[in-house]
Design goal:
Component of the 7-subunit TFIIH core complex. By secondary structure, this protein is an alpha+beta fold. The protein contains two helices and three strands, in the order βαββα. A hairpin with a 2-residue loop joins strand 2 and strand 3.
Length: 74
Amino acid sequence: MVEAIKGLLITCDIPMAQFIINLNNTMPNAQKFILEILDDTHLFVQPHMADTIQYRLQEFRDSNTFEKPLGVRN
């Protein structure tokens, strides 16, 4: 018998996949959201976590973006 699981397929580059896997690994067991790691660039995750994953990715990007301080000249 076939068993279907509802989920969200994430396709990304390898560093972003590693970030998501690490995020999953930092969660308590009851909150882990990765259902299956399909390969280096594809993850199958619980659909209710989509907003949380996007938010954490945006936080990570914002923290790693250089902004030139105001008042500094070239």
